[in-house]
Fold:
Amino acid sequence: MNIEFLPPAGLSDDDLLAEVARLAASERAATVRLIAALTEVDSRRLYLGQGCSSLFVYCTTLLRLSEHAAYGRIEAARAARRFPVLLEMLAFGELTLTSLCLVAPHLTLRSEDVLRRVIHDARTRADVGNSVWAELPCHCGGASDKGVMSGQKRSERHANHLGYR
Structure:
């Protein structure tokens, strides 16, 4: 693999900012292509033929992704199988991988409009989490908390369930 590294000191400020924007777009595109491919690898269960018991094992051992990166891409691949528009949203930067992982457990045909609004209006993980958890029911087990818990308590419960706290 031939990787070219440009020393940032050799670029003007404008050129450096343009290069960073180009690289970010390129990274999004590569991530979307990887997620799309993982969707197909998962549906065909091709990881089994590679000696891996799961897609997660395949991603962490053969693709050498971190556990966090593997989890995010697998979650995105499985959500994108049901909602292909998510790949387009990722590619155009309308949705981050982190936000997709937060909303994926809540994706249903009934909640699609709410999720589109939440994704459009929120830019940070906290914004997405608070908006989704305030408007959609909890799928983390336990008693139904819609109307029983405040949005903040529900957010804390979901964050704990997802391992963010």
